[in-house]
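Before we proceed, please read the two lines closing this message. Tell me what the token row says about the fold.
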Amino acid sequence: MSFIWTHSKRDQFILTCLTLLLFPLLYLTLELPKRIINDAIGAAAPNLRYLGLDMAQTTLLIALCLAFLASVIAHGLLKMRVNSYKGVLAERLLRRFRYTLIGRILRFPRSYQSRVSEGELVSMVTAEAEPLGGIMGDAIAHPLLQAGQMATILLFLFVQNLWFGLAAVALIPVQAWLIPRLQARINLLNRSRIRQVRVLASDIGELAAGAAILRQHGGWRYRMALIGQRLGGLFDTRFEIYRRKFFLKFINNLLTQLTPFFYFLVGGLLVINGQLTIGALVAALSAFKDLSSPWKELLTYYTAVQEMAQRYHLIIERFAPAELLGDFLADEPDAAAPDIPVQAALTLEGVVLQDEGGRSLLNDVDLAIAPGSWTCILAQDEEDRSAFSQLLLRELAPSAGRVLIDGTALTDFSQTRIAATLAHVNSAVHVFDGTVGDNVMVPLCTAPQEQLDGVALNEALRSGNSLDRADGPWRPANGAAELLVAAQGDWQRLVTITGAQKNLLSRVLDRRLAGPEERALQEQLIDARLAVRGRLREAGLADAIHAFGTDVYVDELTLPENLLFAISRRDGWLPEETGRLLAALIDTLGLRDQVLTQAVALARMLIEVFDAEATGSALFRRLGLPKELLARLRPVLKRRDGRSVARSRSRAADELLLLSLVFNLPASHFDGDFSAALKQAVVAARRGATAQADPVLTTGFMPLDETAWNPRLSVFENMIFGKIAPTSRPRREEIKALVVEILGARLDDLTLSELIRKLPTGLRGANLSPQLMEQISLSQAVIKRPAILILERALASHDEAARSRAFASLRDLLPEATIIQLEAELPQSGHHDHALELRRGRIVTLGDELGGVEEGEARDDLHRKFQALRKAPLFRDLSRQQLRMLAFSARWVEFAADSYVFRKGDLPDGAFLIYRGAVELIERTETGEVAFILRPPEGTLVGELGLLRNDPRRLDMRAQGDLLLLRIDAGDFLSVVETDARTAFRLIQNLIGYLDRPQ
């Protein structure tokens, strides 16, 4: 109610005034029927005096009836206005509530966001919030309306007869006491139901994300059993709600119907005894009937408010974590914020940062980074790197100390200023559904007012002139053409330097350019088509392509497309009406018998290949066959086999179904099964086919013209003006690389970037490789020209040479930026000015020893074990908490030179991590002679497979010199394998590696 009142005080006041106007009109609709019966219809004389006027009985009847009609119409119109106003108000408040919730999602700290399911959030914002809208509109006006109607009706009943009024109110206190108590239990059940639905939504989201894993490993039965258990619990809860809800309605209806019982009994006796008029009794019964409705509405409103309050608080508590970030959505506009510096100094003063478990990630850190410098900070642990970058981005708050930018505390920055001052690049990139250009230009889309028209944007990028704008959801920051041109130029340089241009263009070749705004681009690509054809011939790749030609049958096109030398304008199976027009055309051209013979042959082949159970196979789906096609083909072929020349009523329909195979399936799907004679006949008939075809048919196909762009073909198919032959598909990438090379040489940079900008990304970047997604992240950071750039393992999936080229370009693109590079290892070709290391919560100069460390020896020892275990490949994917527990239980063991750690035949009691020194693993023959010796390097885990198999040791392990090992107890090791699937999978890989070795 606080939320409703805060955001709708004025509207609620207007609704209250409109509602109060209803009550006089309502009273008239109750009083006038009594007057009509008693004063007009029941008048003792044909002429009478009424309200000081002499009139006939009929005149009075007409006047009272007209007054009743007017009051009913006025009451109905005013009530309609009230209800409409409530509906609009409800939608406004619901829109504000949802907007607030979505805004809070943006303010979730990362630690909290990682604990909340996306499916749960979506469910709360959409489905759970939907019922709140009704109560938001009804909050004040609805109870006032119903209570006012009830009071008006009760007043009328008391005016008619005191006992009528007392009978009407007699059971109201009972209902007012009983109903809330019955409703309280229903409210608790509703709360439980909402929580169960949330858990179910989370499970469904997780199931959808991991569906492929379940199919691969067979875990769907277990997961579906869990879903069944959730649904069963939800069913039980809802059943209990229904049972209690309908019992409540039964009690309420029973109590409500007791009053009419007394009205008929007592009122009838009073009328019989002459103590009450029949008109008064009828009016009283009518009034009480109207009284039950507002009373039920009040009770319903009470129960709805209780339920919605529960729902509201359940939603709010999920969207109000204690560490919620500040409301940056309410920031002042950019013009009101301080100017963003080109250079910025970064300072950490006594910063203490802890993780969720209370472990110190940074411990009393003092650090000063000069403006314009490049500092590389080494942190081997991914969590340490992530925590440090989140600290600088204010995603994590320090427990003590301050982070300063140019002397101003980071806590005093608005989020708008943080977004403009700092940029962060890492490998965990989120790509929005849209195009590459949409995602790269995200930093420039800051104001929800206007959107650049695509054509105007291209002109601005080419000329730098002012921009024309079209209505839309966003506009570039400041609306400056110069900013867009600079950003586009930066992006072009990055794409070229990182080697992404060829990769992106290769993906662009697989999409279609069909929009009218792309006409200029299409014309430039058509100009490059001849060069592509020439280069293909020079490279000896022309034979790999089935080029479109007026005298050639292309197997990758369907028969109608070959006949009309055009591409179908629609994807999928052609409609039946198009099939009829095609059948008439081939009949006119004299091809029907040949085509029908071919269609029958294809039908028999399909029936032979696919049985009734094969309609779900990948091959069946790839052919694009309708699921019911085979079931329809079988009786058609039986009817053809069962007659010679005899006609049947279904012959026309049967032939049309058979012809649909040839009309929709290209010859490339049937290796060598399309007759050469039919192909030659189709090519021969091509010249007159278009002229004789029905105009309705030809409009469904896009003509193939070597001098024009065909929007039904991909960019790649347009450039080669043909299709890749099925036998040449392995050479497809080679041909694409050649086309990309030609485009890169013939098209200017803006045209190339325009092609790349329109590449669809898919949901969460499904159409992009990890390398391309990382390049988008780097581009987003560079084009906004930040004062501070944080590179957290940026471009990690690229090779070292590509990373080095990209980082080298940053100094040219951002000459004055302060760059902080977080790495696990020191880059070989580093571009940094300084190198630091994040070690045990301290930042020290690379290679320096920690001085003045206050931790005790036990903590240092635990850290040493932790670092040793983390370097072992088997434990690479363990969480920090699992590694800490494993390090705590592990023990150091020392061995002198030539001593044995274990011998062949010993029972395995632990695994050993080689920390310092050299060992020999010796295989001996039955006579004791050495068969072979293995010398694993430091950091190798030895003896883990013996723990898994629980077999005696098969080798001797001997120290070559002084040896220091980290021993992991068998029980601790097996507990890790049992609880961490990734570690178990790595162990299986190691086991397979042993089995694959030659014996």
